Every structure is written in C-alpha cells, then in structure tokens.
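Extended Data, panel c. Modelled sequence:
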Amino acid sequence: MTRRLHRLCAAALISLAPSLTPSAAFAAQPAPAKPAQAPAPPSEAKPPPYEAELLRLAEIIGALAYLRDLCGAGDGDSFRAKMTGLLDAEARSPERKETLAGAYNRGFRDYEMFYRACTPAAREIIARFLDEAGKISREMATRYGG
C-alpha cells in the first residue's frame, strides 16, 4: 500500500519540475469466548499516519491544476490525472475519496477566486508549490516508505 502511494507521489512530483499492525494485548486470564466481530468498515478506519501530508499534497495539486493552466502551461489535465491516480491508490471508502477530493477542490477554488490572470505572484506561487510538493513527497517516501 505505502510503496504504491510513494511511487505514485514520486512519479507525480518528479513530473512536476508499512503499515504497522497493532500488537495484540495479552491478558493474564483467558477471556470468555465471544462471537468473532467483523472488522470495522473502511469508513470507520483510522486515517493513515501520513494523512496531513497527503491532504496538503492534494490541495497543492488542485492549486497547480488551476494556476498552471492560467499561466499558459496547458498541463492542468495532467494534474487532474495525478489526483485521479492518488485517489485510486488511497481512497478505499467513499468518505476517504470525498476528503481527498475536497482538499484538491479547495486548492483549486481558493486560487480560482483570487487569480483571474497570470501574474508574477501566480508564477511565484507555482514555483513554491512545486518545491513544497517535492519536499512532501520525499519526506513521505523517507518516513513511510518500505
């Protein structure tokens, strides 16, 4: 799972310029027999430890999709495709997909509201976001990679 995510992030960001299971608790006395509980549905699953970084990355991709097209790069569709790949790798439930897509849309809309033309400030934001996305990707690969 994490290797796929890191490969996806690395591939996405390069083109831009292990899950641990909890150990069982041991009781001194055997517990009474209970019917086996079904695993929690994905919507109730705990988010991964890299959730904040992943949401920030999705937001940056959304902003870049808007700003790069605004400034004439014409590669907004490639950023949408990168986000689709990220959703395919990480969105295992409708709630998770909504959270990630919401971050992407927030990044897109925030810059759409204020930038109607490509300005030097917009170009600077693009450069900073490309740099930040690269840093996030490297940190995630280093920290959570296999």
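Residues 5-35 have pLDDT under 50 and may be disordered. This feature is highlighted in the accompanying rendering.
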